[in-house]
Amino acid sequence: MQTIIEPFRIKMVEPVKLTTREERAALIHAAHYNPFLLRAEDVIIDLLTDSGTSAMSADAWAALMRGDESYAGSRSWYRFRDTVQEIFGFSQVIPTHQGRAAEHILFGITVQPGFIVPNNTHFDTTRANIEYRGGKAIDLPCPEATDLVSDYPFKGNMDIEALDALVRLEGREKIPLIMVTVTNNSAGGQPVSMENIRAISRIAREAGIPFYIDACRFAENAHFIKRREPAFRNRPTVEIAREMFSYADGCTMSAKKDAFANIGGFLCTNDAELAQRERNILILSEGFPTYGGLAGRDLDAIAVGLREVLDEDYLDYRLLSTRYVARHLHDAGIPVIMPAGGHAVYVDARRFLPHIPPLSYPAQALAVELFIEAGIRAVEIGTVMFGADPQTGEERPARNDLVRLAIPRRVYTQSHMDYVLEAIGLVWQRREQIRGMRILRAPQYLRHFTAEFDWLGPAAV
Ligand code: F0G
Question: Which pLDDT band, with edges at 50, 70 and 90, does 458 fall under?
């Protein structure tokens, strides 16, 4: 069968409020042309993030009811810890309220001013937590990542030669750990191959440097390995996941992604002494070590989600449904990053709107037009997000200007995706009339969340 079906049935629904084009034009104007400033109820299809927005299963909701809210040593904690140990294989498990809390604790202990942390590409909170400690976050994406259209299967990989050179130059005195992000969110949700993970691990071990995995989308990455790396074709995805982690010394995880949870995360290591220091910080900021920043019921929901996410029928559906969106856009001549990533489709706004220069924010203009056309909320990843020099405030073009359509897990159906495709097609037809934008007001840091915009010249709506 060619038709992709969702491998689940729907037994509870959330209404979506439909709006007219005129209403949406007024709503986005009132939100100063920044989709972050919209009310969620005014959005028809919300593709702002895949984080914390997944649909939980009947089993996960049932597990919430089993939650044991004891302050110390709850049953929920043991179910959570055992599941994490079984899949990730690390001896020490530290629950946190979300991924960035795990990062904050890890880097708070390991990074000192002047230290360097390499990664294939740091996610923005990871980078910020390293820089907050006075460290330097260095991105080492593989050279293939810069070609947005080639069909290279593992564009999330790290540049092994560059890593080797950096490790030789700086050594373990300056590099407290090496990290790899699976899948590589900031580089299009592209996967990292097992071969690449092994190579990173080898370099790290030879240099005596701990190797960590940012594991947010570990199940999607493991399934990409199964489908794209020939040696793994016949291996169960859960075993592939275990093998990935077997090369690492620890991980950070946001359970808001590949655990279907609305909140939660954890930090793992095999180093009992380090874990003790991490727990001391955990108690200050998150909570007692058997609950971290979470309720017992959250721990139970995560334990169920971590097992469910490794279901191969689900993962086939997940990767195919994302690919369906990217393929259809690509076949219609609409510029998207190819091949599709796991959790999101990235439209290349610079090629979509070649008449709008980067400093007039083409991806912001496109995100606004998607909302006006069809009530779709997406996020700009480009010159608005990365274009201001934090020291001087000077504007410069970011590496790319992309619109990310992040797809929440098990939330939208194929017909919702067809609606998204039709909407993008309609905006594509009138692309030449779309104007660039300017920033009216913006804070110094993380300006994309709250900046206010207006059209350059008369609006195209
Ligand atoms: N690492 C990666 C690769 C992420 O994508 C995220 C979050 C985090 C760490 C932080 O986890 O949100 O639980 O604190 N990414 C979300 C996104 C916000 O929209 O891509 P968190």
Answer: low
Residue 119 Cβ inside 6 Å of ligand 1? The answer reads no
Q: What is the 3-state secondary structure (H, E, C) of 81-92?
A: HHHHHHHHCCCE
**Three-state secondary-structure class, residue 403:** strand
For tokens 């729907």, the residue is: 10
Token pair 């914390």 is found at: 52
Q: What angle do CA 111, 391, 442 make, to 5 degrees?
A: 110
- Cα–Cα dist 459/383, whole Å: 20
> Side chain identity at 169, as an amino acid letter?
L
Domains and CATH numbers, the chain: 21-50+311-455 (3.90.1150.10), 58-308 (3.40.640.10)
For residues 52 and 55, give the distance between their C-alpha atoms in angstroms, rounded to a whole number: 9
CB 28 within 8 A of CB 38: yes
Rounded to the nearest 10 degrees, the angle between the axes of helix 218-228 and helix 312-331 is 80
* Cα 266 to averaged position of ligand 1 atoms, centre (Å): 13
Query: Can you tell me which atom of ligand 1 is nearest the CA of 217?
Result: 3
Question: 270 in ligand 1 pocket by Cβ < 6 Å?
Answer: no
Residue type for 356, please?
Answer: I
CA dihedral defined by 400, 153, 48, 317, rounded to 10 degrees? 160
Question: What is the rounded average pLDDT of the residues 354-382?
Answer: 97
Residue 460 has pLDDT above 70, yes or no: no
Please say if the pLDDT value at position 319 is more than 90: yes
CB 249 near ligand 1, within 6 Å: no
pLDDT score of 461: 47
